Amino acid sequence: MKELVLSVVITWAFINILKPIVTWIRTGEMNRSTLTTNGGMPSGHTALVAPLSTALFLETGFSAIFVLSLALTLNVIYDAVSVRMIIERQSRTINALTEGKPGFAKMEENVGHEPLEVFVSLVLSVVIPLIVYAIF
Length: 136
Description:
Layout: H1 2-27, H2 44-60, H3 64-98, H4 115-135
Helix pairs in contact: 1-2, 1-4, 2-3, 2-4
């Protein structure tokens, strides 16, 4: 059980620490706000649920609880890539239409994930739990 918890916590923490580093490499600016924002590389949403599925598979095999966690993981990934990208486009459009107009606060635009951002998180969400289970 401790391996399961460690797998999720270590993966999620590693990916969220990696976010500002990736932003710094891409933009040349160190921006700590990426620790708490949505969207970006890699996907923190995926990093919270995917290592849970990996760890549950390692703990229980192809069980009902693993299938349930896999369904949750797929739902979160679909939301991150599809639904949130639609919201991101809508936010950009609304911000462009309301820019400079009184009474309109700027909406957050970076809320979704590109498929590559999710893929990187998925890979790390399998590798890190495998390492955790090998060590403990």
